[in-house]
């Protein structure tokens, strides 16, 4: 007999998740309003592949680094 999670549909979950590029996720994590993310990232400087530094959003670079580390290790904890 199959378990419910083996046969269930994920259609109800799919609309609720979005995949963001790391710099966008880091900006959102730093409390940048979603409508302003692209504007702020256009001012940021890429210091390493997908790691950005911003002149006045100080947590952007640590946020990018923390997200990359979490992706590599398989989980995230704490604040940037």
Task: Summarize the SSE layout with pairings.
Elements: H1 4-7, H2 22-29, H3 37-41, E1 45-48, E2 51-53, H4 60-73
Antiparallel strand pairs: 1-2
- Note the gap between the termini: 45 Å
Q: What percentage of amino acids are in beta strands?
A: 5-15%
Count of DSSP E strands? 2
Count of individual domains = 1
Content-based structural category: mainly alpha
State the assembly state of the protein chains: single chain
Outline, from the CA principal axes?
globular
Strand order of the largest sheet: 1-2
Number of helices, where a helix is a run of at least 4 consecutive DSSP H or I residues: 4
Overall description:
With 80 residues, the protein is mainly alpha-helical. It has one domain. It contains four helices and two strands; from the N terminus they run H-H-H-E-E-H. It has helices at 4-7, 22-29, 37-41, 60-73, and strands spanning 45-48, 51-53. A two-stranded antiparallel ribbon has the order 1-2. The chain is globular and about 55 Å long.
Characteristics:
single chain; about 80 residues; mainly alpha; two-stranded antiparallel sheet; 2 strands; globular
